[in-house]
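haha ok so turns out i had the wrong file open the whole time. this is the CORRECT one, sorry everyone. sequence first:
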Amino acid sequence: MKLNVEIKGKGYPILCLHGHPGSAQSLSVFTNRLSNRFQTIAPDLRGYGKSRPNGHFEMRDHLTDLTALLDRLSIDRCLLLGWSLGGILALELAIDNPQRFSGLILIASAAYPRGNHPPITWQDLLFTGVAGIINYFNPGWQWNIEVFGTRSLFRYLMHQQTPQAYRYVASDGVAAYLQTSNAAQKALFRALRSRYNRLEDLKSIDIPCLVLAGGEDRHITAQSSLETAQHLKNCQWQCYPNTAHLFPWEIPSQVLKDVDDWLEINPQAIS
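then structure:
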């Protein structure tokens, strides 16, 4: 299907892929900065954001959509950046067609993703709903964070419960969550049940890679991200302590600096 896409800036192209739930807007923490030097291409994946699905689909349909998008934009070669599910899709693209991509940045992602999330209770859901609604109307309100946020599921997504992180949730997270389709949910759950594992296929990827992880990530553990980094031939690994799955919203300045530094020492990733 033809994806809705946000394109910013000019220069070498970077395909930016969001997670679940998510949308192109969820990646603004990266695209706003990178588009000052590069052309960032951030699509809403099928079933997310404004890319509405036509019924049932499978995870591999995302790859067909993304390849068609690059063809439509006449992009023969680009850098890949993927967060969570977006990182898994970026890996799949690089495995399927390694010559088309010059570099790979994985954010809170893994080729063999594993989590250690505790069971979810009704209290978790209640406090998450209350915290999310209040935060939407009053982003980053410290009272809401302390009373509801720290008792909600947000405590597993963001280890650092800061107003800055909650403002990102309000501006870039809520709409993405509400726009995630049931078809996208089902496609992801089917993939998870298949025990996805592409570690042994990473040997075909011979481009500069950067793998970033949150030390307290419960959704895709830092250990599984490290395992992926160890299977990539040319990879730099960075783990941020006291952060979780949404660490780019917890410590954006540090993450963006590390991405800039990596690009500086790996010019072949953007050429």
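The beta strands are 5-8, 13-17, 39-43, 78-83, 101-107, 209-214, 235-240.
again sry for the mixup
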